[in-house]
Amino acid sequence: MRGLSLLPFLERNPGTFHLRFPLASQDPEALAHSSFPFLLISDSDPTARVVAARVDTDGGDRVASLFFLVQKDRYRLGKESLHPVTNVEVEKAWQRAGAAYLRFGDRCAPRFFEGQLGANGILSPFAPLFFCKEKGRYFHPPCPRCGRPLALCDDDAALAATGLPLYSGSLERHLFCEACAGSAAGNFYAVEVGSGAPAVLRDRISLVREFGRVGGGSSGETGFPCPACPEREECFGPSLKALARIVPFSFYPFHAFAFDAMSLCAPDFLSLLSGAGAETLAKRLESAGERGRAALVRAVGDAAPLLFERGERRFLEILYLKLSLLGELFDSLPSGERLAGPPEFRPSVDRAWVALGAARNLLPRYWNFRGTVLDIGRYGEEDASRPGAPGRDDLSFLGVAWFEALLVNAKQDGVAVRGALSERLRQPAQGEASPFPGARDPGSPFFAGNLFFEPAAEPLSEGTAELWDGALAAGWSILLAGAGKETGTGRETITAEIRTLRARVRDRLFEGAAPPALRESGAQTQKAEPAAQPRKPEPGTAGDDADAAIAGILEAILRKWSADAAAAGAPPPPQTKASPPRPRPAPPDADDFLVKTVVLGAHPGPARPPGASLIAADPAIEKTMILRSGNVAPPPPRTAPAPPAPPPAADDFLDRTVILGPGKSGVVPPAPEKPKAAKEPEPPPAAEPDAEFDLEKTVILKAPPDTGKIRRQGR
Questions:
Q1: Confidence (pLDDT) at 527
Q2: Would residue 674 count as lying in a domain?
Q3: Is 548 in the same domain as 593?
Q4: pLDDT score at 364
């Protein structure tokens, strides 16, 4: 098994993009002592690691940031005596994951390379890849004897003949040269070699040392740079600097998925959301050996404040966002499947990731995100031969993630939370309405104050406390379903419960609250005169409220224009009082959905040629009334009414439009119809809007289609 070559994608050529794996450090001394110098994001998966990657231009500018989920050289899997995990099972896991991404159309699906997926849907591995730190060159490891590329030996018969563990019966892997395998000089190579290994087996250090024997005529297939390098003697001479300079990116052929880069690991996102400082969290991660995650936390930095910075609403906002993330992660998992592999294959919270939205969003940054799980273990299949109680791995993951998201903080880690859950499972509450009767006790691990990164004992109202109890009860139900103790709880039920709970939290969060996001919306505060108090809506229909709101807007606009006119020394326009709300008209037809529309504009729109009409001639607009600035000629004398117009077309949905603009206001009714021979006079050019006003408010009243009738009341 040789695999595909990544070399064409890694080579930097003029006029093309190229793939690059950033180094963890630019310090030559630190780089020299590193056996894996690449920027490692996460190493929590037992069979794969997340490595940072980039797509750059030929000039070195970044085009895209990627996360490479790369198969490891050394697995961290437990040894089972009855059902041992082998290379075959790991290979199947990668194949299932590749097929699942294509089948499910995952929104975070990876980018596949040309040739990575065969015509039959089989995932092809990449060839072993080595790196020279001194020259920054990648190459495939050559056979020290003939220079041909080394490959993975998956031939059990050939391995058995040399006394090596079988590929299909173990997790051991070996490189060999297919051309030299039958000769006495044919050797096998492993990244590590234990005691008692056969003499034909060599380790990584021996392989790099033997690279010095490779001649210059056999580097075409491998890209091996050493034969023509001026430092060849220094690398393979007495000092053997090649042992420190040449390191494997992957010693064996490897599978890999290239994902769009994510912003934060899910536990780190939850900590920042709960109030953790970026630098404090980064130092905690570094002390735990998670330097890649620490770098991401520092890159994000301390987030902007939430909508509500204190009090009970802050508690509800954090709870709402955590429930939203849990829903995102649950939706990213396939449904109803158990894993064929060991427990280490199952989804884990530290393999869940969050991508934050644009930093310049009108909402706080933590309100705009998406989440997913980056691993290969979530795509499994039922395996009845494995022991254990029937359960659901997707629900087990969500149940554990649920409580960790709500309860992990600076004083209580994931181990403590899982221990408390285990204790609750062993000793469930008896005769209690809630599975967590002590959740309102500050000393309980399930106390509501544990929602914050720094636990707080702030008092909660009874309604909010009940929502917290409901959140714990929902997580408990999911956890029991995942363990097979509640067989009636299906995926659809869980999804509906999450949405219902989240909606309840959201409704209470904004209950009676002014929309705080308006402070960031870009709306300008009027300083010319104090704003009028908003009229208190009278009991009535939704249509009454809308009429009252529009009347209030019109009054404010007239006051603004009056103030502007007074400042300019011109007589103000006549003050017009808005009529009281009219009774609500009869309900519109089924397709009569645009009864009233209010648009508040913030910019003037495209430039208009001199003398051009504000509204272009359009048969869809039957009648137009325009209120605009400037002196306006009086209306022409009335004439006999024209014959009624034919019924409008089906798409003639804009019966009448009213546009309110700044400045002095007048009314320009539509001109009477004239004989076709008469030429329409050119209307005077409309006055340009005040630069400061900038069309700050525009009200457009749109009417629905009406078969020949012109509605004059109740619009």
A1: 38
A2: no
A3: yes
A4: 86
